[in-house]
Amino acid sequence: MADDMDHDDRAQGVDKRRKGRGHRDTTEWADRYGGARFKELDPNAKPGPTASVEGWVIFITNVNEEAQEEDIHEAFAEFGDVKNIYMNLDRQTGFVKGYALVEYKVYKEAQAAINEMNGKMLLEQTIQVDWAFRKPQRRR
Amino acid sequence: MADDFYLRYYVGHKGKFGHEFLEFEFNKDGRLRYANNSNYKNDEIITREVYVSQSVIAELKRIVEDSEILREDDNNWPAPDRVGRQELEIVLGGQHISFTCTKLGSVLQVQNSKDPDGLRIFYYLVQNLKCFVFSLISAHFKIQPIQK
């Protein structure tokens, strides 16, 4: 993947604090991709949120560590049929890590969920809700 | 460029089924690249690319910061070997870490190492990052089985 980090640093005169063997230990496996390209769903799209393979995915943060999938489902079902929920646990503590992904079939439903739920309370915490995926556009 | 951000994780080994590896990379524009390679049963590389929103990048940064991995160093971590190799490269908050390690099979291996506390942070951060990436990639690309 990107090996040009070092060039950028020196070119800008920035002296990042560097740590780790990886800076010195240049892997002989650098060409592990053999020219393979990275598959995207729709490489020619115009800017904005983007559809996923079967629907539209929103991203929720600051989720209470004791939340259950049911709580997410209940809060987000009023905007449309919830097709999928991903809510991961912290691998060490077992509590909810803090984020969740919710999928709706239709753009309108996902947009409504974002508009209504962003900045609202869920289990006594203020959640943020936004699109998960967007079309490629270099951020300035 | 104090707001610069980059994260890459690699885990892999070379063996009977070729160079088997998992790798993912986020850049600050939100481009997520994912690759999983194996020649098991003559399989080929799987690659995926999607742009995530700035909310997702912000959450990724939070996960990294909360782990305090940037305070650690890999000096006393077991080096990559025939069993396997892990690489974690992160640019965040003016720091650029590039850690390497062999594959970690268990908490016991972490506990018995020369830097159990630092290595434990790495061990769990890697698991949390994988969960994060697998969920994003699945949500965007995976077609759900038909429910009867």
TrEMBL record, chain A:
Gene3D superfamilies: 3.30.70.330. SMART domains: RRM (SM00360). Residues 1-28 are annotated as: Disordered. It comes from the Eukaryota. Residues 56-134 form the RRM domain. It holds the Pfam family RRM_1. Keywords: Cytoplasm, Nucleus, RNA-binding. It is found in: Cytoplasm; Nucleus. This is RRM domain-containing protein.
Automatic annotation (TrEMBL), chain B:
Pfam families: Mago_nashi. It is found in: Nucleus. InterPro entries: Mago_nashi, Mago_nashi_sf. The keyword Nucleus applies. Its main location: nucleus. GO terms for cellular component: exon-exon junction complex. One of its GO terms (biological process) is RNA splicing. Gene3D superfamilies: Mago nashi (3.30.1560.10). Keywords: Nucleus. PANTHER family: MAGO HOMOLOG, EXON JUNCTION COMPLEX SUBUNIT-RELATED, PROTEIN MAGO NASHI HOMOLOG. Belongs to the mago nashi family. This is Mago nashi-like protein.
